[in-house]
Amino acid sequence: MTFAFRPLDPLKDAELLHSWVTHPKAAFWMMQDARLQDVERAYMEIAADEHHDAFLGLQDGEPAFLMERYDPAHRELAGLYEAQPGDVGMHFLTPPTERPVHGFTRAVITAIMARLFEDPAVRRVVVEPDVRNTAVHALNAAVGFVPEREIDKPEKRALLSFCTREQFEKAVRA
């Protein structure tokens, strides 16, 4: 599977995103009760933030997933761990589907990691999924993430995990 990435347009893409983030499958996204305007506002804030951006992943030109990239020294994890130069934070969401494709989500996270590591300044990717999200923990491990510890964020108990470029390359070669 091959994917392309494009910057998310907070207004044009809000309706699609709203359908994704309010679906029961996206419970860990914590936007279950969001209105369309809430989604627009949240992604307009991201678009205006110099330390956070969002992209749609495209498959055959059609939106297939959401990816957010952030600077963990300034957003999400600021003050919760010792940020290092070259750290980049990441979130991703695959939408609900009537016809799941075996291996799709793993292909998505692999493409996201490859995209992040295209930037030579990126030395490791940092994630902080909910400790209860065992499905994403397994996906993270499959692409080389190593859990460090649980941390308390205002909205959740999270599993702080890291993946270096070398860990990613080793995992995807295996």
Rg from Cα:
15 Å
SSE pattern: EHHEEEHEHEEH
Shape: globular
Name the strands of the widest sheet in spatial order.
1-2-3-4-5-7-6
If you had to describe this structure to a student in words, what would you say it looks like?
By secondary structure, this protein is of the alpha+beta class. It is built from 5 helices and 7 strands. Strands 1-2-3-4-5-7-6 form a 7-stranded mixed β-sheet, sandwiched between helices. Strand 6 and strand 7 form a beta hairpin. Helix 1 crosses helix 2 (36-48). The relative contact order is 0.14. The model has no long low-confidence stretch (mean pLDDT 93).
Question: What are the key terms here?
Answer:
alpha+beta, 174 residues, 5 helices, globular, 7-stranded mixed β-sheet, single chain
Write the layout of secondary structure elements.
Elements: E1 4-7, H1 14-21, H2 36-48, E2 52-59, E3 62-70, E4 87-93, H3 104-117, E5 124-127, H4 134-142, E6 146-153, E7 156-164, H5 165-173
Parallel strand pairs: 4-5
Antiparallel strand pairs: 1-2, 2-3, 3-4, 5-7, 6-7
